Amino acid sequence: MSILAAESANPLLPPLGEIIIGLIAFAIVLFVMFKFVAPRFEQVFRARREAIEGGIERAEAMQAEAQASLEQYRAQLAEARTEAAQIRDQARAEGQQILEELRAQAQQESARIVARGEEQLAASRQQVLNELRGHIGSLAVDLAGRVVGESLEDDARRRGTVDRFLDQLDGMAAGSPDGRTGSSVYAPEGNR
Amino acid sequence: MTSSALALGNVLAAESGGGDGFQAPGLGEFYPEVVASFSLFGIAFEITRITIILWVATLALIAFLVATVRKPSIVPGKLQFVGESGYSLVRDGIARDVVGPKGLPFAPFLASLFFFILANNLMAIIPFAQISPMSKFAFPLVLAAICWVMYIWIGIREQGAGKYFKDILFLPGVPKPMYVLVTPIEILQNFVVRPFTLAVRLFANMFAGHMLLVVFSLGAVYLFQVGNYSMIFGPISALMAIVMTFFELLVIFLQAYVFTVLMGTYLNGSIEAEH
């Protein structure tokens, strides 16, 4: 409608046909964009984002794993250290105990030895005393018999004389319980 | 605007009628001869060079877009990278950052807008086509009308009709007496100026760009042919035509982007009840 008067046509008053053609062209572009292009692009963007996020996630997981391993290793090391210290302490305590035990044992042993020695000493002393007593008695009687020339027939009197003599000897020795007992045992006898 | 365009047309027409001098290109540039015409439901359809260019651009765009997503992969090939860059520019740069957090569903629409305008604009400097269908007012008008309907519809859908129109009529936070002044401006702004400027900005840029290229190109040819001392100005005119072609390339991208960004801000205004 405007071709005939192209020179005088108003460029701001477009013919309806052109408007419709423009509408159709744009509608086709819109259709293609909404139907095929945009979904595909969104799909690519999503896939890319997932790929990147997946990579980051994987790296994070790996890092966490490494961190866990490090923690575990450290814990194990600390555990080993405490264990070693414990063992050392225990060994020291055990040593101390053994030492103490040995010392106690040695002391006991020495005490025992000393006691036995004393016992033996006392026994041999007693033996010596007994022997001496017998000997001294007979010797003295023998001697006295010879000196006096008379045989002391009276047994009781003889024993009394010997005992008195021995008591005197004991009294001079002044340490032996046997002697004193002897004297105390004897005394009433003598009075009687 | 209308009268000045008419005046321009008249001046150019008057000059071109001036006999054997330089036949300056006029409005006739935008009304090429009709290849075929038919009538459907009483509406006249005329198939001209520009209509054919529109279809070539549209089909090329669709072929390009489909090719970029034919074998989508996480690591993009060259073609996919180009398509993806354009789509991401609109999706992230406009739908997400300008429209807002609810903007991603509008990404395909905004991307269609951007790519459609870009493909048609590029025809302005592609040899043998060398005119953008967007320099015909009908096509920017269609896009602006779609945007107009859309941002009003989205505003009603997101905020409810009552609140959406109330906020436009009575701008919140304005002293009551100022409504005398503000309300008519807001009505004009939202329902008339926005779509009109959207359409005219794109149309006028492509129209003027085409006129510049044609004037310098034809001027160069004329100066070479005229056969006198004017010849020395021929190369200057030719050089200017080349420089203006690069300038036109900038305008092509800029206008496609500006149209889309503005639509993004209008959508943002419809979705978020701010002001």
UniProtKB/TrEMBL annotation, chain A:
One of its GO terms (molecular function) is proton-transporting ATP synthase activity, rotational mechanism. Residues 169-192 are annotated as: Disordered. One of its GO terms (cellular component) is plasma membrane. It is found in: Cell membrane. Keywords: ATP synthesis, Cell membrane, CF(0), Coiled coil, Hydrogen ion transport, Ion transport, Membrane, Transmembrane, Transmembrane helix, Transport. Residues 56-112 form a coiled coil. Its main location: membrane. SUPFAM superfamilies: F1F0 ATP synthase subunit B, membrane domain. The chain crosses the membrane at residues 19-38. It comes from the Bacteria. It is a single-pass membrane protein. The keyword Ion transport applies. It holds the Pfam family ATP-synt_B. The keyword Coiled coil applies. Belongs to the ATPase B chain family. Component of the F(0) channel, it forms part of the peripheral stalk, linking F(1) to F(0). F-type ATPases have 2 components, F(1) - the catalytic core - and F(0) - the membrane proton channel. F(1) has five subunits: alpha(3), beta(3), gamma(1), delta(1), epsilon(1). F(0) has three main subunits: a(1), b(2) and c(10-14). The alpha and beta chains form an alternating ring which encloses part of the gamma chain. F(1) is attached to F(0) by a central stalk formed by the gamma and epsilon chains, while a peripheral stalk is formed by the delta and b chains. This is ATP synthase subunit b. The lineage of its organism: Bacteria, Bacillati, Actinomycetota, Actinomycetes, Geodermatophilales.
Automatic annotation (TrEMBL), chain B:
GO terms for cellular component: plasma membrane; proton-transporting ATP synthase complex. It is a multi-pass membrane protein. One of its GO terms (molecular function) is proton-transporting ATP synthase activity, rotational mechanism. The chain crosses the membrane at residues 37-69, 106-131, 137-156, 202-224, 236-258. Keywords: ATP synthesis, Cell membrane, CF(0), Hydrogen ion transport, Ion transport, Membrane, Transmembrane, Transmembrane helix, Transport. PANTHER family: ATP SYNTHASE SUBUNIT A (PTHR11410:SF0). Key component of the proton channel; it plays a direct role in the translocation of protons across the membrane. This is ATP synthase subunit a. It comes from Geodermatophilus sabuli.
